């Protein structure tokens, strides 16, 4: 258990034992604790006082399934709040295998300086000048890093968008096939990495110094039970592997909650062209396919590979949220174009959601026509070039809306909403408004409750409690390092008990069933405290006005949860 | 009365020769409920099926209407 600290001002690195205050924490809980203790909440997100923290989850690096999730913690240049941007791939497992609890990057180098932070198989870290990689897109960069560092590496890196310090800049991370196609995408964390002068974090995957597990036999049993429950669930055991996350598109569209044409409609005409079923069929015909394993330790295989008509790779993995942002919101109903947009965003280092919604806002304002795929590709390329329009679009929907004097901006605290309209799924609206991260569906998604007929999505009653419960659970999952999709297994009580037993077996402490909720609440409290000191108030926890005034067809409803109720959501 | 059903995800395998574009036309008695349809289709895990018609998730006791298009999904979760 050690923390590696990197000072980019002094170009110094030190490794220390995990400080007492941070013991027993991982992932999002750890990034929240470090941010609270070490970073002035009112700091400039792109200045030297801000820190960029890479923290694998509590169980990352173990053989517990679906735990290669990494939390990237910082103060967000997009939202002005604390940020935990969660990514998959292989790097969380790689850090776990080295017994590294966190990498904390602070300070700021002289203008123009750029480095790679390398961590070798013994856990020794070093800074390497990265002048030759400046301006490079991520796929080319990955190819070069594999040549320089060997093929047993995990990478987190930025593309041109991060170097331009754009607010939609992602940190891309390598998957099991060494493609930089996974991302800690949200909140502009790539811009913070760019401001730190860090082009890439390269970690050797051959580490053999993982933290000891206190009770290996108990851990093994718990991990096995959880994996079994994951397989038994039809969603994680069958649907995701066959259709990917896009398998939910048809259902959300059928519920009238698929935000289309910049959130002016809840049903997309021609949705069949971009559904999970169509995606799966096309991929199989072309020799790519669903059922791809993208992240280390994954037992779900929700990832996919999308090839063109000649069987040549276009992108991996084409996800529901990207298909929505680049398809539903823009009116582009062509999976080939959407796949190219996805690839471009990965290559340039951009959040597909914030970027797609920025394009949709521009189209809604009349800059280009809805459905014009060629124009969308041109707009993303402008971001890569860093043109004046590219800088506006690369800063996300808020910047695009301000530029075009357009009122309909589907974002909270600057961050775009996701593929569930809050007027037709009111609980998602509660999460978008009150999350400590800006609009973020992964912070507390309640869609499953609607599908299970436990809550009426159109009525305000019960939505705050549902969002609260989900936000607490997700804060815990992000801290444990468990994939949000694998958390579905917790619907089975045996899986929840197994997860608690695994954490107990790893730590050597006999923990009770409420440990997961306690961890989530503790994390949310720390995040709220940071935001409070940063000047965020309840007035910021609101949806944009148009969600309250413009009814969404086909249900013709508006967002109805009142402000007083919203303010109780995270009073935990 | 007549209804049309549309099967999504792995549920399409329930009906031999199911064509996604067309769906499946069914003749059902008046008063037929959502739960009756789940039973008729022999969906292996009834608790894992969600029926959506006219934008609304149906409860097991909801009666089906003539001419309705019933979309049938596995229970799903957001990611």
Which key terms come to mind for this protein?
heterodimer; A: 572 residues; alpha+beta; Aldehyde Ferredoxin Oxidoreductase,  A, domain 1; Aldehyde Ferredoxin Oxidoreductase Protein, subunit A, domain 2; 22 helices; 14% strand; B: 79 residues; mainly beta; Ubiquitin-like (UB roll); 5-stranded mixed sheet; 5 strands; globular
How are the elements arranged and paired?
The complex is a heterodimer of chains A (572) and B (79).
Chain A: E1 2-7, E2 12-17, H1 27-38, E3 52-56, E4 70-75, E5 82-87, H2 91-97, E6 100-106, E7 115-119, E8 125-129, H3 138-149, E9 153-157, H4 160-163, E10 171-173, E11 182-184, H5 189-195, E12 198-204, H6 216-232, H7 234-243, H8 249-254, H9 276-286, E13 289-292, E14 303-307, E15 313-315, H10 320-328, H11 335-348, H12 352-364, H13 373-385, H14 388-394, H15 397-403, E16 411-412, E17 415-416, H16 426-434, H17 447-451, H18 463-480, H19 493-507, H20 515-533, H21 546-549, H22 563-566
Parallel strand pairs in A: 1-6, 7-12
Antiparallel strand pairs in A: 1-2, 3-4, 3-6, 4-5, 7-8, 9-10, 9-12, 10-11, 13-14, 14-15, 16-17
Helix pairs in contact in A: 1-18, 1-20, 6-19, 10-11, 10-12, 11-13, 12-15, 13-14, 16-18, 18-20
Chain B: E1 2-7, E2 24-27, H1 34-40, E3 49-53, E4 56-57, E5 69-74
Parallel strand pairs in B: 1-5
Antiparallel strand pairs in B: 1-2, 3-4, 3-5
């Amino acid at each position: 258990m050690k923390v590696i600290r990197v000072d980019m001002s002094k170009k110094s690195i030190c490794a220390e034992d995990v400080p007492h205050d941070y013991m027993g924490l991982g992932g999002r809980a750890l990034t929240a604790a470090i941010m609270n203790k070490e970073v002035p909440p009112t700091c400039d997100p792109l200045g030297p006082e801000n820190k960029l923290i890479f923290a694998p989850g509590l169980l990352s690096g173990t053989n517990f399934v679906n735990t290669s999730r990494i939390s990237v913690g910082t103060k967000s240049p997009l939202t002005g709040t604390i940020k935990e941007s969660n990514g998959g791939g292989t790097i969380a497992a790689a850090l776990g295998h080295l017994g590294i609890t966190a990498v904390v990057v602070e300070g700021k180098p002289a203008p123009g300086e750029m480095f790679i932070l390398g961590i070798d198989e013994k856990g020794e870290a070093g800074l390497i000048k990265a002048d030759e990689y400046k301006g490079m897109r991520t796929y080319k960069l990955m190819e070069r890093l594999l040549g320089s560092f060997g093929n047993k590496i995990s990478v987190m890196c930025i593309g041109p968008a991060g170097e331009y310090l754009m607010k939609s800049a992602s940190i891309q991370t390598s998957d099991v096939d060494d493609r930089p196609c996974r991302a800690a995408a949200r909140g502009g964390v790539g811009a913070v990495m760019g401001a730190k002068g860090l082009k890439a974090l390269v970690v050797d995957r051959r580490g053999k110094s993982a933290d000891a597990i206190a009770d290996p036999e108990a851990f093994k049993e718990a991990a096995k039970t959880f994996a079994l429950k994951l397989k038994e669930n039809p969603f994680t055991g069958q649907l995701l592997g066959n259709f990917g996350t896009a398998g939910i598109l048809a259902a959300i569209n059928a519920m009238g909650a698929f935000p289309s044409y910049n959130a002016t409609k809840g049903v997309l005409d021609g949705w069949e062209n971009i559904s999970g079923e169509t995606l799966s069929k096309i991929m199989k015909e072309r020799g790519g396919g669903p059922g791809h394993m993208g992240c280390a330790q994954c037992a779900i295989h929700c990832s996919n590979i999308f090839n063109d008509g000649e069987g040549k790779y276009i992108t991996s993995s084409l996800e529901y949220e990207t298909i929505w942002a680049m398809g539903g919101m823009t009116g582009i109903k062509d999976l080939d174009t959407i796949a190219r947009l996805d690839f471009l965003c990965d290559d340039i280092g951009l959040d597909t959601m914030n970027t797609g919604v920025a394009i949709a806002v521009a189209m809604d304002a009349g800059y280009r026509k809805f459905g014009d795929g060629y124009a969308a590709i041109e707009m993303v390329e402008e971001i890569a070039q860093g043109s004046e329009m590219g800088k506006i679009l690369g800063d996300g929907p808020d910047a695009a809306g301000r530029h075009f004097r357009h009122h309909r901006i589907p974002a909270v605290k600057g961050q775009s909403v996701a593929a569930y309209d809050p007027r037709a799924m009111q609980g998602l609206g509660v999460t978008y408004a009150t999350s400590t991260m800006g609009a973020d569906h992964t912070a507390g998604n309640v869609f499953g409750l609607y599908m299970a007929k436990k809550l009426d999505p159109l009525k305000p009653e019960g939505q705050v409690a549902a969002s609260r419960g989900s936000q607490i659970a997700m804060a815990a999952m992000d801290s444990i390092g468990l994939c949000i999709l694998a958390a579905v297994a917790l619907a089975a009580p045996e899986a929840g008990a197994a997860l608690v037993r695994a954490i107990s077996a790893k730590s050597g402490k006999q923990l009770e069933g409420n440990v997961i909720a306690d961890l989530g609440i503790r994390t949310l409290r720390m995040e709220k405290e940071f935001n409070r000191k940063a000047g965020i108030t309840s007035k910021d926890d609101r949806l944009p006005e148009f969600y309250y005034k413009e009814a969404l067809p086909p249900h013709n409803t508006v967002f109805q949860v009142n402000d007083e109720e919203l303010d109780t959501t995270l009073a935990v | 009365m007549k209804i049309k059903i549309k099967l999504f995800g792995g549920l399409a395998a329930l009906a031999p020769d199911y064509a996604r574009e067309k769906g499946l036309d069914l003749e059902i008695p008046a008063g037929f409920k959502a739960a009756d349809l789940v039973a008729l289709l022999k969906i292996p895990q009834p608790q894992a099926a969600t029926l959506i018609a006219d934008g609304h998730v149906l409860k097991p006791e909801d009666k089906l209407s003539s001419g309705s298009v019933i979309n049938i999904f596995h229970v799903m979760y957001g990611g």
